[in-house]
# Entry
Amino acid sequence: MAVEIVVSGTVSWVVFQDKRSKRWIGVCPALNLSLEEKTLGQLSETIDDAIHGLFLDLARANELGAFLREHGWRLASPLPARLANVRFTMPYTTERKVGHDPAPAFA
# Structure
């Protein structure tokens, strides 16, 4: 069973459905991530996986601490010595936009 490592703070995702492809897009400027899935439910799962993957990559590169400090975030519990069995999570909100253009939020 994975050890959950919670990152304090909250990020916001803008989600919208592309009119042409009908695929769901999620954009998080704070994490510099953009995702795409077929359904809104799949997008939600992919957001969780992307958050975990980003923080795991940063931890493996010994850059997690600097990244968290830069954003004013911290870990809710200490990072274990072994990263093989961790699952990073971070609370997030979603703002659903109508249409296929996330502007002006990212203009």
Observations:
- Strands lie at 3-6, 11-17, 24-28, 33-37, 86-89, 92-96.
- The first strand starts at residue 3 and ends at 6.
- Helices lie at 40-60, 64-71.
- The chain has one domain: 3-96.
